[in-house]
Amino acid sequence: MSKIQAPKGTYDILPDGNPKDPWTVSANWQAIERIAREVAALYHFREIRTPIYEYTDLFHRGTGETTDIVRRETFTFTDRGGDSLTLRPEGTPGVVRAAVQHNLLADQGSRLKVFYIAPNFRYERPQRGRYHQHHQFGVEAFGIAQPEQDAECITLQMDFYRRCGVKDLSLRLNTLGDAESKKRYRDALVQFLEPRKSQLSEDSQRRLTENPLRILDSKDEKDVKAREGAPAAQEYLSEASQTHFARVQELLTQGSIPFVVDSTLVRGLDYYTNTVWEVIAGGLGAQNSMGGGGRYDNLVETLDGKPTPGVGFGSGLERLLIALEAQGVDLPKSSPPLVWLISLGDAARDANLKLIQELRQHNIPADMDPTGRSAKAQFKLADREGAAYAITVGETELSSGNVVLKNLKTTEQTAIARSEIVAHLQSLVTK
Ligand code: HAM
After folding, report:
1. Residues of the chain with CATH 3.40.50.800
2. What is the pLDDT of residues 184-238, one digit of tens each?
3. CA gap 378, 370 in Å, rounded
4. Cα–Cα distance between 212 and 190 in angstroms, integer?
5. Is the pLDDT of residue 6 over 70?
6. Ligand 1 pocket, residues with Cβ under 6 angstroms
7. Second CATH level (architecture) for the domain 339-429
8. In the chain, which residues fall in CATH 3.30.930.10?
9. pLDDT at 108
10. Nearest CA to ligand 1 atom 12
11. Does residue 409 register a pLDDT over 70?
């Protein structure tokens, strides 16, 4: 019988993961999650955590019945009570559900700005950068219909990438128009494509009735050819939608955030109206979308809330780690250096058990091997565990009241009074 493995499309995050697969190294996650939390706090977004599964209906109504996500990518199961549940494929519907359920948007226009760092589940064909379980840092801002809110979300997202050190980014921007403009455009597109139906790919022939806008971002050569000369969304925009989009662009320009307007960008979720955007990064290969978002002014109402505008983005964290690795960027690691205690004999071990507690109480990470192995074996272990300093205690040290501190990188050694060691290490590790 073969050994049990992690399910297909999932991976483990380990203390020493494979640096060539940067999404498997736990310190990398700690670093980007810390930056995400810091940047969210700077823009005054507060954390929300919702369950990883919801009633299936939420995603059918929220994400949209005709989206690829709901049609063929959800993990859906019936629980023992007979209810149909779905593992969250994307963060937005759960956040809206929670906001409505807890009356966080009670008065129309009330503001709510939240962020999440959370796993999502999509049954897509696994490959580098595409998993059955992936993680997103996302934000959602409710209550402000003005383009300033779109620009704040985009600015936050780009600031997050900048702080992580990722380069070679391109921000693509488009507008789908408000619900009415979107519908007018949809009708015009169907009218244009209907006579060309037989030239479309099989998927797009289906999309023609269900979700025609998606034909615009299909990469299938047949679709690219068939849609040549198709009308552009811009021609169908209401005046309000045009003004909104122009102002978003103006704000980004004022904020020195480069972008390109791409009229083929429609994004794969039904709820978007007006602004949509996507950030593409170099070094990602086929799965080059780092993150995307948009405005969804009708979603709260669709999910039983009072009409409330919303806008947000989701950024794939595996893809961010892959891009950073491909671009040779080292993430700032924040953990202070580790001190390893070496004990020569039982009495020294007992003394070190006291010292280790003292170090930890003073916020100095410390560890030791209590099994009574040779000094050589203990030093080897200290090296393997990545310790920066070793403190040796033996009979001599116990009687002299000193300990021996060794910098494991430079191999420099000094005797220091036991009573001074905590203060001395504190000055070293906070340097
Ligand atoms: P999305 O474009 O479906 O948007 O996903 C956002 C990001 O999640 C993608 O750009 C990608 O980086 C990452 N991602 C998606 N699927 C996978 C996968 N199978 N494996 C690895 N990474 C993946 C949303 O989910 C919207 N909820 C974003 C949003 C929030 N819009 C408004 N608010």
Report:
1. 339-429
2. 999 999 999 999 999 999 989 999 988 899 898 888 999 999 999 999 888 999 9
3. 10
4. 7
5. yes
6. 90-92, 122, 124, 129-131, 134, 136, 138, 140, 268-269, 289-294, 312-314, 316, 318-319
7. 3-Layer(aba) Sandwich (3.40)
8. 22-178+238-326
9. 65
10. 316
11. yes
H-helix or E-strand spanning residue 75:
none
DSSP string, 132-196: SEEEEEEEEEES--SHHHHHHHHHHHHHHHHHHT--SEEEEEEE--SHHHHHHHHHHHHHHHGGG
Which ligand 1 atom is the nearest neighbour of the CA of 289?
Answer: 10
pLDDT at 374: 96
> 122 CA distance to ligand 1 centroid (A)?
10
CATH homologous superfamily, domain 22-178+238-326: Bira Bifunctional Protein; Domain 2 (3.30.930.10)
Q: Which of 61-75, 206-220, 254-268 has the lowest mean pLDDT?
A: 206-220
Sequential DSSP letters for 249-291: HHHHHHTT---EE-TT---S-TT--SEEEEEEETT-TT--EEE
Average pLDDT, the chain: 94
